[in-house]
Amino acid sequence: MAAKQKSILSEKILLDALDRVARNPLGYTVLYVNISRLKPKNRHPQFVKVIARLFDSVVGTTKGVMFVLSNGDIAILSKNTPPEVVDEAVKKLRTGLAADPILSHDSRDFAKVYSFPTDFVSFYTKIEQLQAQHLNSVQNNPPVKRPLRAEEIDKVVEKLDEIDISELVKRQSILEAKSGGSFSVYMQEFFVAIKDLSPYFPEDLDLTADRWLFQYLTQVLDKKTLSAFGYAELEQWPQKISLNLNLSSVFSKEFVLFAKSFLKPEQKIVVEVQMMDILNNMEQYKEVKDILHKGGHELLIDSLNPQSLDMINIDQLQPDMIKLFWEPLMAYENNKESVKAAIEKLGSKNVILAKCDSQEALKWGLEHGISVFQGPFIDTIEAALIKKECPFSNKCTTQECLKRHRLLRGRFRQECQSLENLEKLL
């Protein structure tokens, strides 16, 4: 299990390193050692350790970085790896494993050098495919998860410091349905999905299992997400930026700096908070709402359903908005007075029907007076409308377009041949 944890982490970090190298790849090389092509008896963990030590000389000479991948292969990223250094390491290895077929002939079958920029695309694709194969294997044989422990939290936070969060921040549009079947962007939610952090941590570690440790972790992540906006490559921003935050994060210097320095005068923040956070900090909730209103911003209560909506007092909490999560069962429950009451009190644009995954969800919302929607079905509508106006629409699929549209920066986003159209707000 430990080897699997390390390998998937190494592949992800290697791809991140390649993304950075892609900006100026000239002179970089990767020495790729095909450990997986050795005979099974020569892939014994003790042999692999010996092989890794032999190639330490390459790392030291070139000031490179070594990655042990999911299939046991070794990749050493460096600048200008001298061929004689590679040959010397393979020569030493051949002495001990001369009987292995891959070492009895051309050493390039065993240790190959990829030179950038010429070999960059082929090598990047190779690592992407290797990671995908490994992820598929893990999904078919998922490890038993264990909760994050208190003594591990500092190391998790340290790891977050090493991650380029700006490449993980995504946006998801909330669309307003107009008369005649058209749509426009009402606001966009910006967030970091916990599943996107998972590859950076051991596979058996569940970051969400312990509620209190997870809450502390999200507070750290809130600050890093707010700081990441300064690195975004977007040119076109929505007038309303929605952020899913802890109440306490509104008091952070990162939030204050974001509100004062990043936003344009016409832009507003919608802070989405969880009901559990409110119930644990009612006085803080009121204070946060006052702070937001003074700045011209708004507060939204997130993750509600008809049952939880029955239990809260909208008149007492007085949120600016709420987000109602769609459930298929709602289509068969027509007498939800709490939903109707919320729409009457807050307005049709302030009750968002989220997690819309079908035409049925959209139809239900419209029939109940809701005009703003979010979810997979809405994402598909948005991507289709973007592609409709794109002069290069035949170059990618709707899902690829959607994936690029959601990113704030990074190599995959930059592959779009019409970034201006990709960013266009409906």
Structure description:
It contains 20 helices and 14 strands. With 426 residues, it is an alpha/beta fold. The strands form three sheets. The protein has an eight-stranded mixed barrel with strand order 6-7-9-10-11-12-13-14, surrounded by four helices. A four-stranded antiparallel beta sheet has the order 2-3-1-4, sandwiched between helices. The longest helix has 21 residues.
**What kind of sheet is the major sheet?**
8 strands, mixed, barrel
What is the typical, i.e. mean, pLDDT? Answer: 85
Return residue spans where pLDDT drops below 50 for at least 5 consecutive residues.
Answer: 1-7
What is the helix tally?
20
Helix proportion of residues, in percent?
40-55%
Overall morphology: elongated
Overall SS class: alpha/beta
For the biggest β-sheet, the strand order reads 6-7-9-10-11-12-13-14
- Write down the Rg: 26 Å
Extended strand count: 14
Strand content: 15-25%
For the termini, the CA-CA separation is 47 Å
Q: What's the structural blueprint in terms of helices and strands?
A:
Elements: H1 2-21, E1 28-33, H2 45-54, H3 56-62, E2 65-68, E3 74-79, H4 83-96, H5 101-104, E4 111-115, H6 120-140, E5 146-147, H7 153-162, E6 170-177, E7 183-191, H8 194-197, E8 205-206, H9 211-228, E9 240-244, H10 253-262, E10 268-274, H11 275-280, H12 282-294, E11 298-304, H13 306-311, H14 314-317, E12 321-325, H15 337-346, E13 351-354, H16 359-367, E14 372-373, H17 376-388, H18 398-406, H19 411-414, H20 419-423
Helix pairs in contact: 1-6, 7-9, 9-10, 17-18
